[in-house]
Write a structure and sequence with these properties.
The complex is a heterodimer. Chain A contains five helices and five strands; from the N terminus they run ββαβββαααα. Chain A is an alpha+beta fold. Chain A has two domains: 77 residues, Roll (Ubiquitin-like (UB roll)), CATH 3.10.20; 65 residues, [2Fe-2S]-binding domain (DNA polymerase, domain 1, Orthogonal Bundle), CATH 1.10.150. Helix content of chain B is 25%, strand content 25%. By secondary structure, chain B is an alpha+beta fold. Chain B has four domains: 167 residues, Aldehyde oxidase/xanthine dehydrogenase, molybdopterin binding domain (Aldehyde Oxidoreductase, domain 4); 88 residues, Alpha-Beta Complex (Aldehyde Oxidoreductase, domain 3); 77 residues, Aldehyde oxidase/xanthine dehydrogenase, molybdopterin binding domain (Aldehyde Oxidoreductase, domain 4, 2-Layer Sandwich), CATH 3.30.365.10; 324 residues, Aldehyde oxidase/xanthine dehydrogenase, molybdopterin binding domain (Aldehyde Oxidoreductase, domain 4). In chain B, the strands form nine sheets. Chain B has a seven-stranded mixed sheet, with helices on both faces. The chains are: A alpha+beta, B alpha+beta. Bound molecules: FE2/S2 (inorganic) cluster (2 copies). One FE2/S2 (inorganic) cluster (FES) sits at the interface of chains A and B. The site of one FE2/S2 (inorganic) cluster (FES) has 12 residues of chain A, from loops.
């Protein structure tokens, strides 16, 4: 197994991280960097709780080998959403609409909603459901998550 | 929601989740997010056979993997002095590691402790076992028959709970519990009936699929105290059982439970704790175990069931109801015996029938042990009794809603157990769903084109409703401690587990209401048995009611002390006082007021102290007669819920789309109305998956879909276009502010509502859950006489594919 160091921009900060060839991005974030907001719900890319943004695009970090990340890639996790005390609008919307119960899905869900709105600032409910379909919320907060999307959508 | 008057300032209002900010910041720490310094990682080797004698477990290769500290098998377990090798809340039937034989495919046979997860997993994969295969049994009905392969030779009652003290098991069979209820003479009434309806309904085992897998970490402190951090709904049960397993004092076990990433019944009683603690003992190191998703499927599931039901009709009346239910316990009983007893008692349905007979069995089979899952066995019964109400309506040529109104239990009725029914909002729930899902059959609307549907003629629409009810788990006990600080902030110490249901917010609201505080100034602790007083468990929708009452009791002790001091200070009798916004003031002379910090100064002559109150609440039930199930008080209180569904059935593909879903639940009084809505709709969303596609598929005794790739959950696109939740408030006199629990009510009646709607649409009666397209098509073909086949009866509910 070969070890190496890669350079990434994580939540806006330049970081150098030591990884092995087979280190998963999820494990790198959680175990090497202590960023625990991305969570392992299924390990097979089917639940969305490990979702992070890679250069703005949502990916399942449980399936992504850190060694395959392009040099300097930008990774965003839920920890990076807020600006100090100030919450990101997606966090505000989730909080106000009560878009979670246990919140195990919430980090991935918020990042997916951000990516959705970056692509389509005024999604219909049907469009939002299709985009978010790979994100499970076993607590069933789907209606409130859609309310949060509606609250955020607009020109 | 109807709320005529709001007399409270915090309770009854929509309050934002107090743990919300940490949750949206991603900094809520679940068990797997914690760091346990120096802890070894555990990985498990599991049985590949459903039922087999263990001949040999070879751990040599595993022990040679660099970084491995210990490899431990069931045989090793038997050699450890002073450790009780088996556990369980009803029977001590489950080994910490299998020894002698394995009873399901996926059962842990050996554990590896290593310096890192990779080494532990690599070593676990190198463990080889030799088995002598034994015949296995998967179907609970077959397993209950004499001559079926036997899982357990003898059963040792655990004696851990008052209601499970008298368990004996049925030696020589796989039946671990047989509950009976008799009222009148059901056999005679069925023999004399004009019509007898007889059907068998089956539900497969399904997964709780909490997104957070189970986890635990444990170590022994130098003085011998055992410290355990775990994902558990039952910190005090775990403490008690660990003390017994390791032969140490209760005070020497500390169980800490962080907020859970969902649970729904899946993290209850002992799960990983005995094994994790055993490995801590064996290695003299801290150890941690985090399950993979696949292993979650091997750890718990909802009881599959075969429910046989008979309904007798004579002279235009329902005269008899008989039910035989076989709950599939899987390999170990866990709390299945209580499900058979407690939930079996509700098998006739929420109705007044003159002649009733129930036999509820909990039966061992060779699969993943079953546990409670949102509804505690009620949904497996409601599918039978609510489909039969619609079938009976067809025979009696009555409207299904009207027929239910004729028989539904009302305040003061005696249930078929002889227990009076009190504060049961069944009729209100029925009215609520039937208002939304109006009349059925006769004036069924013509199929209309939904969005995206182009071939109108292949779409048939139907509507259906169903009712459900449940009794709260009794007897149980909750204790709470409230501490008021001199600055008007407060701490509530409670062992209720926060798993997303919003319990901590509800208790903060209650304490704030009682003490006149800002709800944001109340902190509710998460369970730590060193800090939080005893609570029986967080389950069965019992916490708002039991712990809520305990918090009120604790807060009222403090309130009395505050008023006593205020009365002395202001020279006004304490009856005159009100406590609001951090001040005590006189109702008649509002300018005569004293703030909490001043009261503390007056009382103690110094700042920095606390006022403490302690509350206890105990629910009651009277043990039922073992032959007839008769008891004057079967439960502390009841839950009522109803569902209404509108479906579109594609008659070419058999695909069922639920387009409209209405759930109605009697919550007594909503402490936090928006959380009540979330609980009901969350339960409904989950149950939609159980109704339409979820099923743990067993082939040749082995689970074949233990991954989210092959076991899909309800997702965004499965959600009905209209998803309505109606909270009914029918105050419960003994509840905190009239409240009762709400976590399960949305699950009870949903499946039969969908089955009744499908019947309304295409004239077929489905009996085997989930209602996959393949089953719909088959039933339609059989109904049209194209390919006559025999009706499903108690068949193993296997064979569902992913949606
Ligand atoms: S953990 Fe990556 S998608 Fe489920
Ligand atoms: S809030 Fe629990 S899984 Fe989404």
């Amino acid at each position: 197994m070969s070890r190496r160091t890669i350079s990434l921009k994580i939540n806006g900060e330049d970081r150098r991280v030591e990884i092995e060839d087979n280190t998963l991005l999820l494990d790198m974030l959680r175990d090497r960097l202590g960023l625990k907001a991305a969570r392992d719900g299924c390990s097979v890319g089917a639940c969305g709780s490990c979702t992070v943004l890679l250069n703005g695009n949502p990916i399942s970090s449980c399936l992504k080998l850190a060694s395959t990340l392009p040099e300097g890639a930008e990774i965003s996790t839920a920890e990076g959403l807020a600006d100090g005390e100030r919450l990101d609008p997606v966090q505000e919307a989730f909080l106000e609409e009560g878009a979670f119960q246990c919140a195990f899905c919430t980090s991935g869900m918020m990042l997916a909603v951000k990516a959705l709105l970056a692509e389509n600032s005024t999604p219909t409910d049907e469009e939002a459901k299709t985009y978010l379909n790979g994100h499970y919320c076993r607590c069933g907060s789907y209606p409130e998550i859609l309310k949060a999307v509606r609250r955020l959508s607009g020109p | 929601m109807t709320r005529e008057s709001i007399e409270w300032s915090v309770v009854g209002h929509d309050v934002l989740r107090l743990d919300g900010p940490a949750k949206v910041r991603g900094v809520q720490r679940y068990l797997a997010d914690k760091v346990f310094p120096g802890a070894l990682h555990l990985a498990l080797a599991r049985s590949t056979h459903p039922h087999a004698k263990i001949l040999r477990v070879d751990t040599r290769a595993a022990g040679g993997v660099p970084g491995v500290a210990a490899v431990f098998t069931g045989e090793n377990l038997l050699a450890v002095h002073g450790v009780r090798p088996c556990y369980g809340p009803a029977f001590r039937d489950q080994p910490i590691l299998a020894f002698g034989k394995v009873r399901y495919a996926g059962e842990p046979i050996a554990a590896v402790a290593a310096e890192n997860r990779e080494a532990a997993e690599e070593a676990a994969a190198l463990i080889e076992a030799e088995y002598e295969e034994l015949p296995h049994v998967q179907n609970p009905f077959e397993a209950a028959q004499h001559g079926a392969p036997l899982l357990h030779d003898s059963l040792e009652p655990a004696g851990a709970f008052a209601d499970l003290m008298a368990l004996k098991g049925h030696p020589g069979t796989n039946i671990c519990t047989h509950y009976k209820q008799r009222q009148g003479d059901a056999e005679k009434a069925l023999a004399e009936a004009d019509h007898v309806l007889e059907d068998t309904y089956t539900c497969p085992p399904v997964s709780h699929a909490h997104l957070e897998p189970h986890g635990a970490a444990a170590w022994f402190e130098p003085g011998g105290r055992l410290i355990v951090h775990t994902t558990s709904q039952t910190p005090y049960f775990v403490r008690g059982d660990l003390a017994a397993i390791f032969g140490i004092a209760l005070a020497d076990v500390r169980v800490v439970v962080p907020p859970l990433g969902g649970s729904y019944g899946g993290k209850i009683y002992d799960k990983l704790e005995p094994l994790t603690c055993l490995m801590a003992k064996v290695t003299s190191r801290p150890v941690q175990l985090h399950l993979s998703r696949e292993e979650v499927f091997y750890t718990s599931s909802r009881h599959g069931a075969a429910t046989k039901i008979w309904t007798g009709i004579k002279d235009g009346k329902i005269t008899a109801r008989k039910v035989e239910v076989f709950y599939d316990a899987g390999a170990y009983a866990e709390v299945g015996p209580r499900i058979a007893q407690k939930t079996g008692s509700t098998a006739p349905g929420p109705y007044k029938f003159p002649n009733v007979s129930v036999d509820a069995f909990c039966v061992y089979t060779n699969k993943t042990p079953s546990g409670p899952l949102r509804g505690f066995g009620v949904p497996q019964l409601a599918i039978a009794y609510e489909t039969h109400m619609n079938k009976a309506a067809t025979i009696l040529e009555k409207d299904p809603v009207a027929l239910r109104r004729e028989y539904v239990l009302e305040e003061g009725d005696l249930y078929s157990t002889g227990s009076p029914v009190t504060s049961i909002g069944l009729r209100a729930c029925l009215d609520s769903v039937s208002r939304v899902v109006e009349k059925t059959s006769e004036n069924r609307p013509a199929p209309t084109l939904g969005p995206g549907l182009t071939q109108e003629k292949h779409i048939a629409r139907g509507r259906g409703i169903a009712l459900g009810f449940k009794s709260v788990i009794s007897p149980t006990i909750s204790n709470a401690i409230v501490e008021l600080n001199s600055d008007g902030s407060a701490i509530v110490r409670s062992a209720t587990v926060e798993m997303g249901q919003g319990a901590t917010t509800a208790f903060a609201q209650i304490a704030a209401e009682e003490l006149g505080l800002d709800v944001n100034k109340v902190h509710v602790t998460t369970p730590d048995t060193d800090q939080s007083p005893y609570d029986t468990l967080t389950a069965g929708s019992r916490s708002t009611y039991h712990m809520g009452n305990a918090v009120i009791g604790a807060a009222r002790q403090i309130r009395e002390k505050l008023l006593e001091t205020a009365s002395e200070a202001l020279e006004i009798p304490s009856e005159e006082f009100e406590l609001r916004e951090g001040r005590v003031f006189s109702r008649s002379l509002p300018e005569r007021a004293i703030a909490i910090p001043e009261i503390f100064l007056k009382r103690f002559g110094a700042p920095g102290t606390t006022l403490t109150g302690e509350g206890t609440f105990q629910g009651h039930a009277v043990k039922a007669d073992p032959e007839t199930g008769q008891t004057p008080r079967m439960t502390e209180h009841w839950f009522a819920g109803a569902s209404g569904a509108e479906v579109e059935v594609d008659t070419e593909t058999g695909f069922v789309k639920v387009t409209r879903l209405v759930s109605s639940a009697d919550v007594g009084r909503a402490i936090n109305p928006r959380h009540c809505v979330e609980q009901v709709q969350g339960a409904a969303a989950m149950t939609l998956g159980f109704a339409l596609f979820e099923s743990m598929r067993i082939e040749d005794g082995r689970l074949v879909n233990g991954s989210f790739l092959e076991y899909p959950l309800t997702a965004f696109e499965d959600m009905p276009r209209e998803f309505i939740t109606d909270i009914v408030e029918n105050p419960l006199e003994s509840g905190p502010y009239g409240a009762r629990g709400v976590g399960e009510t949305g699950t009870m009646a949903l499946k039969p509502a969908i089955v009744n709607a499908i019947h309304d649409a295409v004239d077929i009666w489905l009996k085997d859950m989930p209602v996959t397209p393949e089953k719909v098509l088959r039933a339609m073909r059989e109904a049209s006489g194209a390919a006559p086949g025999k009706e499903a009866s108690g068949a193993a509910p296997d064979g569902e594919g992913p949606k």
